[in-house]
Design a protein that fits this description.
Structural class of chain B: mainly alpha
Distance between the termini of chain B: 36 Å
Shape of chain A: elongated
Number of strands of chain A: 2
Radius of gyration of chain B: 18 Å
Order of helices and strands of chain B: HHHHHHHHHH
Strand content of chain A: 5-15%
Number of helices of chain B: 10
Order of helices and strands of chain A: HHHHHHHEE
Oligomer: heterodimer
Shape of chain B: globular
Helix content of chain B: over 70%
């Protein structure tokens, strides 16, 4: 299809849709006078235009319920939902409600959850410390393991603390040794 | 004139956002024809239009308060309508057609048959409607909006959020494709770009 043909069809389309400007109209009229096929195309597109109008009116626009009917039904459906009327609050109120909810959750978490922090070196307990209250037997068993403590002479050690959650969801504060245990050379009379 | 209508529409949107039922009704009535045409351009079945419009109305009532730019009401409504119509079409394509539905379609066809007295004219209408339905969606949307009432090219561009020249070009090509199909000149078909 040539560019001229597409421009001609655009001019005819604008003419049919009532969008043609006066200069475009002059161009279209000139094309009609010089080209009989342009006039024929105009007549055919005019027929199509009319048929399209009629078919869309009868098959789409004039069928079905009216705007009022559908709106009333939608309005009833909308008021049937009580949750919506609860949620239908203004933006500022919604923001304030969100802020208050966040504050309550934050405070609850702050007071409900036990505080766990890494103790300073001079506060390090001598043996493994368990935070769980549900498995005391296990704690006692572990605490009997012979660990070198800070009171053991000539032993230095580095200590880190790790938080550990077991499969039951219990939380443990675990003493982790980097095992830099250094025992200085000492005289052993039995060797 | 157009500016006044736009101002009026913005005022109606502001009132609707405050829960004014009448303002919502007026807004809907003013935009009803093109909304219906747009829904048809997506679902391509006149029997489904009311269901989709019902969904659109419910959503419009619930969501109007979230519209921040009242002057962009039409394009906002078009986006809402397109999304819901596409959802409906997707759901429908996954659902097997029941015998009852086929019966309803048949009854609708029969009804249309009574309306159209002239057999030849009916055949022409059927051909035109088929040609419209077989257009690529982007062309069909522009074409349906153009024939939905008295929208200008500028208003169509605003609703679909596309440039004015795109509206003009799509209309020309849509007409050419329909013309080719109705007259059987498919070999001269415009290639979709």
């Amino acid at each position: 299809m040539s560019m001229t043909q597409e421009i001609l069809e655009m001019l005819i389309g604008k003419y049919l849709d009532g969008e043609i400007t006066s200069s475009e109209r002059q161009m279209l009229e000139a094309a009609m006078e010089t080209d009989p096929s342009a006039r024929e195309l105009l007549e055919q597109l005019q027929d199509l235009h009319q048929q399209s109008n009629e078919v869309i009116s009868s098959e789409v626009l004039d069928r079905g319920k009216t705007a009022e009917e559908i709106f009333e039904q939608a309005w009833r459906n909308r008021t049937k939902n009580p949750l919506h009327s609860l949620l239908r609050i203004s933006g500022r109120l919604r923001f304030a409600a969100g802020l208050a909810a966040g504050l309550v959750i934050g405070l609850t978490l702050h007071f409900a959850l036990p505080v766990r922090s890494v103790p300073k070196n001079d506060m390090v307990p001598e043996k493994m410390v368990a935070q769980s209250t549900t498995d005391q037997a296990d704690v006692e068993e572990r605490s009997t393991q012979p660990f070198p403590s800070r009171h053991t002479p000539n032993v230095s050690r580095n200590v880190d603390w790790y938080s550990f959650t077991d499969e039951n969801g219990d939380q443990w504060l675990v003493e982790g040794l980097r095992e830099d245990i250094v025992t200085p050379v000492a005289y052993r009379p039995d060797l | 004139m157009g500016h006044e209508i736009r101002q009026n529409e913005s005022a109606l949107v502001c009132a609707a956002r405050q829960g004014d039922k009448e303002a919502l009704q007026v807004l809907l009535r003013q935009n009803w024809a093109w909304l219906k045409a747009l829904v048809y351009s997506i679902v391509c079945d006149a029997n489904d239009i009311d269901d989709v419009l019902q969904d659109i109305c419910v959503r419009l009532i619930c969501k109007i308060e979230t519209l921040r730019e009242p002057e962009r009401f039409r394009s906002w409504l078009a986006v809402l309508a397109r999304r819901l119509a596409l959802q409906y079409r997707r759901k429908k394509s996954q659902r097997p057609i029941s015998l009852d539905e086929e019966l309803i379609y048949q009854q609708c066809d029969d009804k249309a048959q009574h309306i159209l007295d002239n057999i030849e004219q009916k055949e022409q209408y059927r051909q035109v409607l088929e040609a419209i339905n077989s257009l690529p969606e982007k062309y069909r949307q522009v074409f349906m909006l153009q024939y939905s009432g008295d929208l200008t090219y500028g208003q169509i561009a605003e609703i679909l959020d596309i440039p004015l020249t795109t509206v003009q070009i799509r209309l020309v090509r849509a007409r050419r494709m329909i013309y080719n199909q109705v007259t059987g000149k498919d070999k001269d078909k415009v290639v979709e770009r």
